[in-house]
Design brief:
This protein has 178 residues and is α+β, with helices and mostly antiparallel strands. It has one domain. It contains three helices and nine strands. The strands form three sheets. Strands 1, 2, 3, 4 and 5 form a five-stranded antiparallel sheet that branches. Strands 6-9 form a two-stranded antiparallel ribbon. A two-stranded antiparallel ribbon has the order 7-8. A hairpin with a 5-residue loop joins strand 3 (41-53) and strand 4.
Length: 178
């Protein structure tokens, strides 16, 4: 029982130390990025390291990112710089309604690197991240259904088999070259 309390204490301590929201820059060091559609608007990219525990009990540190959007003149007035710490947090919101009705494919929830769109009752799930200063704000998550889960398993198994086959072929080619 003692170790459970100690583990929980350490998880909370790690979360408290690593959950600052920080401003990042692009590969050129730019903090304010212009909108492709309208140069009067732009965004600042922010990141936060968070520790999560999955539904099946796995502890996983993960990095979240979000965009602070606004008029470029307002963003400049914010004096944002790389590494700047902001109060608040980044949350995940999932929905069965697109976040962007003009481009609904923009925020589809994709299962890892499988390319599979997560669904429930054959409806796609949409996923986006948001910055908030509300300390009570929580993630809103939607779990995909069993048919989607089975499709993800099948693609994962096929991918593992393919990687194994490629690896075996590489070993055989290296041995043949000797």
């Amino acid at each position: 029982m003692y170790w459970c309390g100690l583990l929980l204490f350490n998880l909370l301590k790690v979360n408290a130390m690593s959950n600052k929201v920080k401003v990042t820059g692009d590969e050129f060091g730019n903090v304010i990025n212009l909108s492709e559609n309208n140069p009067e608007y732009g965004y600042v990219r922010i990141e936060q390291q968070v520790n999560i525990v999955t539904e099946d009990g796995w502890f996983r540190p993960t990095k979240r990112s979000a965009l602070l959007k606004g008029k470029v003149e307002d963003l400049k007035a914010g004096l944002f710089h790389i590494g700047m710490e902001l109060p608040g947090k980044i949350i995940v919101k999932e929905s069965l309604t697109p976040f962007n009705p003009v481009n609904p494919d923009q925020h589809l929830k994709i299962a890892g690197d499988t390319g599979i769109i997560c669904r429930i009752d054959d409806q796609p799930i949409y996923r986006d991240t948001f910055y908030t200063m509300n300390p009570e704000a929580q993630d809103i998550l939607i779990m995909h259904d069993e048919s989607c889960r089975e499709e993800i398993r099948q693609v994962g198994a096929a991918t593992r088999a393919l990687r194994k086959n490629i690896s075996l072929n590489r070993v055989a080619a290296e041995e043949a070259a000797l």
